[in-house]
Amino acid sequence: MSDLHPTVEVGRFVTVLLRRWRTIVVCLVVAMIAAAAYLALAPTSVTATAQVNIEVITDQPFSGQRQPSALIDAATERELARSTEVVERAAEALGGGITARQVRRGLSVEVLAGATVMRIGYTADNATTAVKVADEVASQYLRYRGELATERQQAALAPLIERRDALQAQLQQAATGRTALLNELSQLVSQISGITTLGTSGGTFLVHASDVAPTVSPRSTTVLAAAGLLGLLGGAVLAVVADAVRRRVHDATDVVAGGGGPLLASLRARQPAELASEHDADALLTAWHRLRPQIDVDVPVMLVVGASDGAPAAEVAQALEQAAGAVEAMEAMESGSPTMTRRPRAVPVPAEEGHAVALRLAPRAGLVVIAAEKGRTTVREIDALVDHLAAVSVRPAGTVVAHRFREAGTAPHRRGVGGGPTPLALEAGAAEATGRGGRQ
Q1: Spans of the chain below 50 pLDDT
Q2: 220-245 and 21-41 helices cross at what angle (nearest 10)?
Q3: What angle do CA 129, 133, 136 make, to 5 degrees?
Q4: What's the whole-model pTM score?
Q5: Distance CA 272, CA 406 (A)
Q6: Residue 218 — left, alpha, or beta (φ > 0 → left; ψ -120 to 50 → alpha)?
């Protein structure tokens, strides 16, 4: 049985979701409406991104075995791209009233790990501005890096060139020691040549912001999809919680959970005339066959007690009484004599009349059947009724689950109003039924 337990729990979970699908749909609709309102009210932002390749800035040739990305300080490059010099140059080049503060506010810079690629993005309220600013900042950043590279190169070359010129002057005047001077001069020329070959471009464009479609935020598809998912999950959670707090009766599992005994019948009819359908007629006959061995032949009275307001106790009682009469009549015809000496009777006690009548009549009846309204009676209501019956030493023989019967044009039943039976009338009727059961 332990192996079946997870399957049962999953099945129960699915059943709850199917029964409370309206709750899930309502949550989904609310979430989608909220998402639509957010998309309508939230400001739209557009982000354009340019990608550049960063050249290493150095005044010394480096070994080809070292990766260029290892020579770049990502944090420094990010701050350089956001520096006052770059931002002010970009704002001046853009014109149109764009200030350096506005440029810096919407600017985002990212250096890809393990690479010499930088992404420069700009967020604005329209695509045109975002693209222009992103490309201009990237261009000014590369130009500024190129200027820094050139300055560093010139600073490194200046003392070497000065020394080279001095050595050349000494060679023209020296009569001895020329070999040493030539060696030193050769080394200087080699150093100057090496530094001169270092790149000073600062970097190159890989992708212009104008070459790719900008990103729009919030994205309607993403927001709606997330809202739909949250709505479904929220609805599912709410359905499960609502079922746990107020579990309603639908099938045998719910009846047993409330202690209402076995499920005698689950009727599909919504109008009394539909009780003659093949399914419900068979269910009622089967219910009587299950009840007959338990009924007292001397007091063949069934008490049908409604578990909740609206539970069709009267209709269920009448249907059970008719089913019992049909079975007994058929068997009397087949055997020539009735099986039961007294005609079975069924007395309804609607929940609207309170539990007092049921508790007084239950010990005097042959057996007690609970009538529950499908999808409305709760498990707790059945449990409460069973607990009351146990107080007078009565155990229900089972439960019949049925829809609320309501003829077209009739008003809902109210206690003691509009000709409805009062508790005293019901009690008197039950006593009369018991008496008639002995005479018939």
Answers
A1: 1-8, 62-64, 408-431, 433-440
A2: 150
A3: 140
A4: 0.55
A5: 8
A6: beta
